[in-house]
Amino acid sequence: MALQELLTPSEVTEISKRLQIFRLLEDGVPQREIAKQLGVGIATVTRGSRALKAKEGNE
Fold first, then answer.
1. Please, what's the b/e burial string for 2-35 (b: 16 or more CB within 10 A of its CB; e: otherwise)?
2. What is the pTM of this model?
3. What is the number of other CB atoms lying within 10 angstroms of the CB of residue 46?
4. Which of 7, 24, 27, 29 is spaced 20 to 30 A from 53 at the CA atom?
5. Angle 20-21-25 (CA atoms, 0-180°, nearest 5)?
6. Do residues 22 and 38 make contact, with C-beta atoms less than 8 angstroms apart?
């Protein structure tokens, strides 16, 4: 995959987690539960939530 050639392994992992955050938010999973499940900070999940809301506002 081209992205794996451009990104470091940690960057690939980070992008994967952020995509998982989007999916879980769309499924209605609470933010604190997402943070716990994925081992990320609540601020990371909140940032993802804001990005989804901004996207929905632009559609």
1. eeeeeeeeeeeeeeebbeebeebbeeeeebeebb
2. 0.81
3. 15
4. 7
5. 115
6. no
What's the half-sphere exposure (Cβ side, CA atoms, 13 Å) at 57?
Answer: 6
**Token reading at 8:** 């470091």
Q: What is the CB neighbour count within 10 angstroms for residue 51?
A: 14
Report pLDDT digits (tens) over 1-37: 577 789 999 999 999 999 999 999 999 999 999 999 9
Residue type, 39: G
User: 40 near 14, Cβ under 8 Å?
Assistant: no
Residue 27 is which amino acid?
D
Helix (H, G, I), strand (E, B) or coil at 26: helix
